[in-house]
Design goal:
- This is ADP-ribosyl cyclase/cyclic ADP-ribose hydrolase.
- Belongs to the ADP-ribosyl cyclase family.
- By secondary structure, this protein is an alpha/beta fold.
- 39% of the residues lie in helices and 10% in strands.
- It has a domain of 124 residues: ADP Ribosyl Cyclase, Chain A, domain 1 (Up-down Bundle), CATH 1.20.82.10.
- The chain starts with a helix and ends in an 8-residue tail after the last helix.
- The chain contains eleven helices and six strands.
Length: 324
């Protein structure tokens, strides 16, 4: 193979990579089949809570076509904000009252997901219909013909948004989902924050700050409970960035919510979260008081069972029948 031939083979890939300052994984292969399988699994309530009767009326083929149709052959950095509107009409991010839980700055520690999976009293966006369908997938449109005829780029997608990619395809999706997730929240809601996040537990640029908190309706939301937790992944305590309920960005957030006429409470190191996370991060320096006793053993078993169930659900989605 000559140099010219190699250049022709690689040129589409190189061209795409040059176009994005922060290139990431391309569209997940077999994404259509994955989305349909997850949709069928969710609408038949095979995952347990939340389970609403309206789910059975969802047409999964139409929903997936709407999801992908809004971004096919579209520049991944110029996705219109309404690209997913039709999709969200079919599968809105609905939760049961008193259960809506937001999180910010704790990604990668599985804190909110663990909490929501072990109890029906909390639901995070990843447990909602659209959140479950799109979770951990990659997708974006293609505008250069490198799309295998589907209008999707399977080679590379821009990662995150910024000055050079303000309307990132995935960012637009999660922004819209987060907006609607907050709008439908009723009665008590919860937000989990990382007390040791550099720059502050509450970021003015997070989805919670830009899409969720401003869309909470004070006419129907009774209370916003802030749960402030440590960073369990740190090998040693990092008190330099530690915030409490009475200082820093957390205090700013409380004042912001109260200015919206929302009632706010704040709790540091809530025991329910500490027990569960210390089962996952047993060596964390914050888990000393929780290192003894049956609760940790029980929580450890719960975490292991959750991992097994989650793995089984991922491996078995494509075996689900598409008829009731």
């Amino acid at each position: 193979m000559g140099i010219y031939t190699i250049f022709l083979y690689l040129s589409p890939i190189l061209a795409v990579n040059v176009a994005y300052n922060n290139p990431g994984q391309g569209t997940t292969h077999n994404i259509t089949d994955i989305l349909i399988g997850r949709c069928e699994e969710y609408r038949k309530c095979l995952l347990g809570e939340p389970c609403l009767p309206s789910y059975r009326n969802v047409n999964c083929l139409a929903a997936v076509e709407s999801f992908l149709g809004g971004i096919r052959n579209v520049d991944p950095c110029s996705t219109p904000y309404n690209a997913y509107d039709e999709f969200f009409k079919m599968v809105p991010p609905t939760t049961v009252r008193n259960t809506t839980m937001f999180w910010s700055g704790v990604k990668g520690t599985n804190v909110p997901q663990d909490i929501a999976q072990v109890t029906p009293y909390f639901n995070v966006i990843g447990e909602t219909f659209p959140g479950y369908m799109a979770g951990n997938l990659s997708w974006c449109g293609a505008t250069d013909g490198n799309d295998t005829g589907l209008g999707l780029n399977f080679t590379v997608c821009p990662k995150g948004k910024g000055a050079t990619c303000p309307n990132n395809t995935k960012a637009i999706f999660w922004a819209k989902a987060s907006n609607m997730f907050a709008t439908q929240a009723v009665d008590d809601v919860y937000v989990v924050l990382n007390a040791q996040k550099p720059g502050g537990a509450f970021s003015k640029y997070s989805f919670f700050a830009t899409e969720e908190a401003p869309n909470l309706n004070p006419d129907v939301v009774k209370n916003v409970a802030i749960y402030l937790i440590p960073n369990f992944t740190l090998p040693i305590p990092n008190e330099m960035y530690a915030e409490t309920c009475t200082n820093g960005s957390v205090l700013y957030l409380q004042n912001f919510l109260m200015d919206m006429n929302l009632n706010v409470t704040c709790e540091e190191n809530p025991k329910e979260i500490m027990w569960l996370q210390c089962a996952r991060f047993a060596d964390s320096p914050y888990c000393g008081p929780y290192a003894k006793g049956n609760p940790v053993v029980a929580a450890s078993i719960v975490v292991i069972l959750l991992q097994v169930v989650f793995a089984m659900s991922l491996s078995g989605w494509n075996t689900i029948s598409t008829t009731l």
